[in-house]
UniProtKB/TrEMBL annotation:
Signal peptide: 1-18
UniProt superkingdom: Eukaryota
UniProt name for this protein: Lumican
Organism: Xenopus tropicalis (Western clawed frog)
Cellular compartments annotated: Secreted, Extracellular space, Extracellular matrix
Amino acid sequence: MHLHFIPFFAVLISGVLCTFYDYGYDGGYAGPEGDYYVSSLSLGPSTANCAPECTCPFNYPSAMYCDNRKLKVIPMVPAGIQYLYLQSNMIEAIEEDAFKNVTELKWLILDHNQLTNGKIKKNAFSSLKHLVKLYISFNNLTELVGPLPKTMDDLRVTNNKISKITPNILEGLENLTHIHLQYNALKEDSISGAFKGLKQLEYLDLSFNELTKLPKGLPPSITTLYFDNNKIANIPDEFFQGFKALQYLRLSNNKLKDGGVPGNAFNISSLVELDLSFNELGSIPAVNEGLENLYLQVNKIQKFNLNSFCKIIGPLEYSKIRHLRLDGNNISRVDLPQDMYSCLRVASEIDLG
């Protein structure tokens, strides 16, 4: 076992690259065949079936690239287009007939525009019966857009001004697996029950919002749940016990104290990674023996309690912790119990700062 510093980013990077599979390292979007899209300027001449303002490359005839064109309106999209890139323009509105010719559209990228809810017609997306990905981040939305096609599996609406989700706006989206809502102005009352019925939902990111409590009515299918950088101070008793598939849970940069964390809060048998860094915890909370990565840096922890990791120590009873961060607390090596190695026998890195 090595007691030395582990860069937090390095531990997480494989998960980040896997989670954000549609983005290139430079923030570009993956092309329809999986190649990372950087700029339409490098795609060569267009096919004849293309809007004059845009590029439809011969090697991707079903894709139309209209990014960075200073467009204020959505151009006419010809039939046959399945991948439409409209990011980084000045588009303010979406009319009801904007996509009437492209009922086969699968990807719609509208990031970095000037869209507002009042200028998006109610049925703007209703003709898109095959849409699976909608990216509409970095706009001026105050509510979640919809109704959306039932074929959707990936919705990204980050970096807007969303303060509420209209009840039932996500109803019927049983194929939706990923929702990104970080960097908005959501409060718990405005989203409680909003995700109910999303039977396939696996990934939900509500980081960088205004939550003071954990929202109710989250689907039990979730495997990845992020609440970083909110104002959450309490966790209801057994709140996470219904999430039988939950593997990754982040609650860093909140207002958690010992009194607001029930003793059994994180005893989740499926959990692989738990991030509670940058809170106000005075002790190490009890975790399940199957947990592998635990991040507790920058809290107010003063004691290393081995019972938080192992209720029983034996040949087959021990903690699966591999990475443990406790730097930025009031613990030094002299505070480590002598029998720590019997419990944390597979830990490869422990950071005490």
